[in-house]
């Protein structure tokens, strides 16, 4: 077989009696919640052999308030091939996160060599996801990326775009993101916008409020009464301000005197700084109205979110899930500054008075009309279908409109030679 035949062989339609081996990477509890329906659709397909890799904080009890872990839940649901990978280093600085990324590349390469998948599926902009993308790309394995092309404005955005450039199949969640991917030189034939699978979760799995008396710490709350939710994560480029920014948000929420469910931060640089301030506050401040929680399973999370008077912080949940549910959002700082957002989001700087005023305004406003910015038709089923059936390739070519005709001619000529 000559070099040209070898180069384009993977682009031929791979449909046959052989099942397509799909490796789906989950590196956080949130990734699991947002991908649960895609996973289920892939599991149900007779033409797919699905391997689910649990890695990063998805394996750590430190980041969850649930009694049943993801692996146990997946096994109970009938998922057969489940793999664990432990490579996260403890430490709250740039070096430990960078080393974690490097260790992730080593661990993913070993596992991929063992599984030998046809395609690796990853989502979003986590640095652990970058490890999987680098390993798969260098091992000549096709990569499908969910949620590429979005903007956020922090290091997460750089990671997201890097993953997109390593990926071969793209599942954008909105038109702006899909257009952006094409501007980045990705082939439009492999860019699909089916909407965000997150937004299907409440309709498919249901929503019910959790019993927060059996988990978490801090104040006892009555969820039948008015409450807000805080999701506040670190911003790696603002590490030196993590303590002061956290104190500002804490002061504003505490002064407001509204019942609050506050979730602990993610694993990014600065997370320990934030966590320490939350622990100090909970230990030293008497009679506050904040209950501190960790991850909840999606049906409980959506049940809690649906009835909240507002979501405060800097999480993408405020941009996406809240836009669909119509929950008012107070978005603080720069972490989501360039995200496509609906009218339910009001931006505010790290200023205690401004934060309090906007929270009051959003509570008074009440629910917004549901937004369709990230809404699609059966995104989970459509994403799973494409992962299972789309023609795979590994050699990427930068796509430019003016070269499209020439590229198509080369592409067709190569396929004719192979056939």
Write the layout of secondary structure elements.
Layout lengths: L2 H6 L11 E7 L2 H16 L3 E8 L14 H7 L4 E5 L8 H22 L3 E5 L3 H12 L3 E5 L8 H12 L2 E4 L2 H9 L7 E3 L7 H5 L11 E2 L8 E5 L10 H15 L2 E5 L7 H14 L5 E4 L4 H9 L4 E3 L2 H4 L1 H5 L3 E4 L12 E4 L3 H14 L13 H11 L14 H15 L1
Parallel strand pairs: 1-2, 1-4, 2-3, 4-5, 5-6, 6-7, 9-10, 9-12, 10-11, 12-13, 13-14
Antiparallel strand pairs: 8-11
Helix pairs in contact: 2-15, 4-5, 5-6, 9-10, 9-14
- The tally of structural domains comes to 2
Tell me the total number of β-strands: 14
Gyration radius over CA: 22 Å
CATH superfamily of the largest domain: Glycogen Phosphorylase B
Helical/strand content category: alpha/beta
Q: Largest sheet, order of strands side by side?
A: 3-2-1-4-5-6-7
What is the end-to-end distance? 12 Å
Written overview of the protein:
By secondary structure, the chain is an alpha/beta fold. Helices cover 42% and strands 15% of the residues. It is built from 16 helices and 14 strands. The strands form 2 sheets. Strands 3-2-1-4-5-6-7 form a 7-stranded parallel β-sheet, with helices on both faces. A 7-stranded mixed β-sheet has the order 8-11-10-9-12-13-14. It is globular and about 65 Å long.
